Amino acid sequence: MPNSDHTHEGRRRLLRGALCASMCATMSAVLADTARAAGPEAAKLAPQPGDELCFASFEHDGRLVQPADLEPGAAPLLVYPRDPASGVIRERSRINQILLLRLMPDDAAAAGLDAAGEGVIAFSGICTHAACAVSEWNAELRHVVCPCHASEYDPAHKAKVVSGPAPRALPSLPVARRDDRYVITGPFSGAVGAPA
Ligand code: FES
């Protein structure tokens, strides 16, 4: 004969599971509705303060970037801003391509970064020469490289140009960690991309 305490506990667990599944489905539906309501324009907006950083929708299902994704000294991640209210990923404007990386501790200290930020920094991923995507990584020097005309930028020194024809550094984007997410806290430090 079943123990009635166990039966009740089992029922409570089942109910809790059902409740959680129902709430999760409701939350997803609400987010999808809100995203539809936000319209395609929201996906083209420039990064907004409060936006969260996530992968592109074609990579890791567009999930939010977490601290464990960022290894010190590793190649930058290509990320996009995501509206926290609607869940819209602002990936329909290429100037929203953002490079997110974690500096080596010595580089972060030399750059005068706040230790609370754990050396995580973000820059525009669009070259200041002719607006190609800065998509390559020099692992030996830990520089980001534009494949179009080989401009090279040093993230440990405010993404300044170290070689090639680019006329200026990649604009930086202020970000802060909030729990296990990264959030944009202000605008780019300068114009993104090539001069008009
Ligand atoms: S567009 Fe990047 S170096 Fe020319």
What's the total helix number? 2
Q: Averaged pLDDT, please? A: 85
Determine the fraction of residues in helical runs and give it as a percent range.
10-25%
Ligands (ions, cofactors included): FE2/S2 (inorganic) cluster
Task: Report the span from N to C terminus.
Answer: 81 Å
CATH architecture tag of the largest domain: 3-layer Sandwich
The neighbouring-strand order within the major sheet is 1-2-3-4
Which H/E pattern describes the elements? Answer: HEEEHEEEEEEE
Any idea of the CATH topology of the largest domain?
A: Rieske Iron-sulfur Protein
Q: Supply the helix-strand structural class.
A: alpha+beta
Instruction: Name the CATH homologous superfamily of the largest domain.
Output: Rieske [2Fe-2S] iron-sulphur domain
Please summarize the sheet with the most strands: 4 strands, antiparallel
CATH class of the largest domain: Mainly Beta
Taken as a percent bin, the fraction of beta residues is: 15-25%
Morphology call: globular
Q: Would you count the extended β strands for me? A: 10
Q: Please, how many domains?
A: 2
The value of Rg in angstroms is 21 Å
The residue ranges in which pLDDT falls below 50 over 5 or more consecutive positions are 1-28
How are the SSEs placed, and which strands pair?
Elements: H1 4-38, E1 52-54, E2 77-82, E3 98-102, H2 105-110, E4 120-124, E5 136-138, E6 143-145, E7 152-154, E8 160-163, E9 175-178, E10 181-184
Antiparallel strand pairs: 1-2, 2-3, 3-4, 5-6, 6-7, 7-8, 9-10
This protein binds FE2/S2 (inorganic) cluster (FES).
FE2/S2 (inorganic) cluster (FES) binds at residues 127, 129-130, 132, 146, 148-149, 151, 164-166.
